[in-house]
């Protein structure tokens, strides 16, 4: 018989105290151009299934930022180096993680751009992924 080995996609924060693995290719990759995502340094994200995510080390370094209304998305970051980690630790079945935290090729490419109406004038979109002025319904 054959033993099938899944190649894990590894990820980490800048200083390396937080490390994680993803056992499957993310569901999708997209870029958000809203001011909040840009300021958090996490504009291009991949959506990861909760069951495929494994935190290897650094739980004690994960800090949670809870926004005030009308914003609702909780964000996490490394307490030591400040790396934006998306929504690591979310209870949702799928959650976003900034692609810049991945140490390996996620196996897919950018599939959309949202909140293009908020994009700064100096930034030029250089791929052919669909663009949405706001968040599509």
Question: Which key features would you list for this structure?
Answer:
137 residues; mainly beta; Metal Binding Protein, Guanine Nucleotide Exchange Factor, Chain A; four-stranded mixed β-sheet; three-stranded antiparallel β-sheet; globular
Task: Give your account of this protein's structure.
With 137 residues, the protein is mainly beta. The chain is built from one helix and ten strands. The strands form three sheets. The chain has a four-stranded mixed beta sheet with strand order 9-4-3-10, with no helix packed on it. The longest helix is centred in the N-terminal third of the chain and has 6 residues, at 35-40. The protein is globular and about 40 Å long.
